[in-house]
């Protein structure tokens, strides 16, 4: 195993549980990106931001609103404390106790059957590469002359940035932009194309509207000409319609995507082929060298911790049980943890329009959900896409708890359930998940007004 992040740790723990001899090599911090510089610190920061926002918005609930006193040193401590609480699960000690040999060194291939880790030479039946990704920093002129943050440094700050400029309006950029805004910073997001550009524009708009109402300035289609140092901060120069424009900030965050970590591994010596997306793998996650598999961000697929875990399960089935399991992403959800949240599983409306001639789109707004009304979280809606016969193809949700609600839809897609199943279960009242059931019921709406159904009901009445 090379890399002890989400992917590597999952493979190592599962293989060790089956009594297989495992060597795990990690050059940096156990837990990788997710624990140290990704999911965990970002969600902990978002949690602080949510508390601050709730204090500002308390009036509507009959509780006096206050302007929160935000202490970035203490937020930093909170984030560290959350990481420290999870760290033992990913630690060297725990993995050694599970029977895994952990080597803290940089790994590289010597040949197609051998890995070198520091002084140790490892020969193995199978190798799994889980070296993850790093921030992809675009070649913006002047960037090498200014101090800038990426996800690797932003969670270290202990003072509030007066004005944070975020380059990139993907999940990383938007989650952090909203969090910093709610913690009191002025925030400007500069996005080259469209923010949340991969997502359904109608659903993305729900999130972007809320960010705007929170006071985040978002510039889509921004063309960054260069950046320069200011006495205390940075200046970003944009190419505008009428010449150059400047945006001055006190701190800069680059959130323009991720690049796979394949350097330093001497993959050519192992005859493992790579491309710009990462290690080239087939659907069993096997590389061009049949002894070598790749999982997680380096494997060129969607870059999420739950995908790395899913990959781990797939290679375990292949390596230990020779089941030849193949990955499929149709049922894998993705969630952006803004407020409101955005979630998607299966195909989007744009994708279904390309692939299918006929389909149904079912919607239900949060504004019609009683729990959302009680919580005053009525922004957003669910969009369910089915075939004309009711097979569920995709679900997008923008709204409170979207990341929780999407789970049952992922299961429905995985198990090939049709829309009838999503109307037939009993959803506890009042819950946000009812938006899904109400959308599903819309599938049958045309039949409610059908003259045939009405005639049958009228006929039944004849019997008392
Ligand atoms: C700000 C941010 C927020 C995120 N939030 C979420 C979220 O909410 N939900 C979600 O699902 N995903 C989220 N992600 C994505 C998630 O962090 C990644 O998809 C996940 O960490 C990938 O796991 P991995 O095992 O592939 O790689 P990593 O976790 O990056 O682990 C790779 C490990 O390999 C080690 N390594 C690299 N090269 C070598 C070598 N030659 N020898 C030895 N060791 C090596 C590295 O040191 C590292 O520890 C977020 C990412 C970011 C940046
Ligand atoms: N909630 C989550 O699960 C979560 C959260 C954060 C990150 N992630 C993972 O991390 C990955 C990376 O996220 P990300 O937001 O860094 O990348 P991304 O690729 O999703 O978005 C990057 C954005 O930056 C823009 N961009 C690129 N170059 C630019 C430039 N020079 N100027 C202005 N804008 C530019 C792109 O148009 C794009 O919109 C995600 O795809 C996701 O897999 C997941």
Provide structural commentary.
- 33% of the residues lie in helices and 23% in strands.
- The longest helix is centred in the N-terminal third of the chain and has 18 residues, at 39-56.
- Helix 1 (6-17) runs parallel beside helix 8 (305-321) and helix 3 crosses helix 4 (72-86).
- It has helices at 6-17, 32-37, 39-56, 72-86, 92-97, 171-182, 201-214, 305-321, 349-355, 370-375, 402-414, 421-424, 434-441, 445-448, 451-461; strands spanning 23-26, 101-104, 107-111, 114-117, 120-123, 127-129, 133-135, 163-167, 186-190, 217-219, 224-230, 233-240, 243-249, 251-254, 258-260, 274-275, 278-279, 292-294, 334-336, 341-346, 360-365, 381-386, 392-399.
- The mean pLDDT is 96.
- The chain has 3 domains: 6-30 and 91-134 and 259-321, 3-Layer(bba) Sandwich (FAD/NAD(P)-binding domain), CATH 3.50.50.60; 143-256, FAD/NAD(P)-binding domain (3-Layer(bba) Sandwich), CATH 3.50.50.60; 334-448, FAD/NAD-linked reductase, C-terminal dimerisation domain (Enolase-like, domain 1).
- The strands form 8 sheets. It has a 5-stranded antiparallel sheet, with helices on both faces.
- With 464 residues, the chain is α/β, with parallel strands linked by helices.
- It binds flavin-adenine dinucleotide and nicotinamide-adenine-dinucleotide.
- The site of nicotinamide-adenine-dinucleotide has 27 residues, from helix 6 and strand 19.
